[in-house]
Amino acid sequence: MTNSATPPGLSGVAEAARQAPGRGLPPVHLWRPEHCGDIDILIRADGVWMHEGSPIGRAELVRLFSTVLRKDPDGYHLVTPVEKLKIKVEDLPFRAVTMQASEGLLSFTTDVGDVVEAGADHPIVVETDAVTGEPSPRVHVRADLWARIARSVFYELVERAEAADGRLAVRSGGEAFCLGSVE
Questions:
Q1: Which residue spans within 52-152 are E strands per DSSP?
Q2: Helix (H) or strand (E) holding 12
Q3: What is the pTM of this model?
Q4: Which CATH architecture has domain 94-181?
Q5: Potential cystine with 66: which of 3, 112, 116, 148 (Cβ 3.0-4.6 Å)?
Q6: What is the pLDDT of residue 8?
Q7: Does domain 9-89 sit in CATH 3.10.540.10?
Q8: Mean pLDDT throughout 20-46?
């Protein structure tokens, strides 16, 4: 079932995303279309968006698709008012590639241009791999979408961290976020 005003497939996804004013986000949380199948889009662990095995080279197109991305219980989807197309994501859909600190806030910018201020609504979470002991930091972006914090940005966080009770923590937006244990 398709709406004649919204073209099917990638064209429909792009059209739905374009309808968001400015850099705002379309209301994908309100859209409840039927699942239409899978589309050959993969977001690799390094943040590169692939379509049919080739990188999507236009940053504007990746940004556009990122605005209609949603995570449902059965996985990640590009969603329009009339279609829901499942995609693959190797790790997390976004990368936090820069960080700014100002007036008690840590602001992260993702590889698709989203800016989030860490705090109660956008926590920083660091899990540690049980086998390697490597930290795996992430920051909440929106809904159930997260950004992997780039290694260089994580190093900046560690440099800002304060030690207390054998743990390293940073503060932002009145919240404390544990980065790991002091060793």
A1: 54-55, 69-72, 75-79, 84-89, 94-102, 105-110, 115-117, 124-128, 135-142, 145-149
A2: helix 9-18
A3: 0.85
A4: Roll (2.30)
A5: 112
A6: 59
A7: yes
A8: 86
